[in-house]
Amino acid sequence: MTDRLYAKYMWLISTIYDAGKISFEDIASKWDNAYINDLHQPLKLRTFHNHRNAILMQFGVVIECQRGSNLYYIDNPDALENDSINQWLLDSFAVSNLLMDNRSISDRIMLEDVPSGRYYLEIITTAMRDNRQLVIDYEDFFGNTIQELKVNPYFIRMFKRRWYVMALVLPGKEIHRFGLDRIKRVEVLESKFTYPKDFSPQDYYRDYYGVFHDAKPMTIRVKAYCEKPYYLRSLPLHHSQREIESNADYTIFEYKIAPTYDFIQEVLSHGNQLEVISPDAFRQQVKAIIQEMRDFYE
């Protein structure tokens, strides 16, 4: 698929999805003014239907026509809303579209950089697609370098502006995380590995926050103060979030989650607006960290 065709497909999906239901005439009118229509070519009905079929094949998104009204709509929005890749592509395109339409005020739009091994991202995903083994040289934040590490790349994940590859390190049986920005060399081998049919990255991280996977899940409750309950309702910390109790002074949220380093850091990042109340062992762990931080300022 060429970049131009990809942009057309994403524009079409985004336009119909955002409209809910829309006529072909309105789609064609919007296309006339779209920034990606740099050749200023009209959208013909035959071309539109060809794009519909291609979108179904490439993204699994069904664009249907409502009888009587002749309005087009996304028949299976879950293909966008529940598919992380399709959702990412749609969101990324929407942002790209927004930026291109507003280049005249680009100095007034601030974005976060993702300084995370873009070069290796393509190499690793290609190896994943072909189930090929990798040899990597890796340096951690302490300056320790591991060379000639043979791995089976299972999946990739972005977290906190960093890309990670989760890989089975041979000859062991444990999955380890590797930040792409700390990989020094990657070699794609001819040898292949068998990706487990019963393995799911989503299930692997179901009870976890972030990239660490070194603690057992438990039921954790936190008390949110001030405006924090509204923040957590609009942007939950984790999919397991449940609201247990709420009054004018605070709200209690419950999670089924592992108390990993990443989750602890997230809790601490909310300052005095978030308090761990149970279990007590986790509360004491967070308390000890806060006490140590307090000692820095004595």
TrEMBL record:
Pfam family, one: WCX
Domain WYL: 120-188
Domain called WCX: residue spans: 217-293
Coiled coil: none
Span of the signal peptide: none
PANTHER family given in the database record: PTHR34580, SLL5097 PROTEIN
Protein name per Swiss-Prot or TrEMBL: WYL domain-containing protein
Organism: Xylanibacter ruminicola
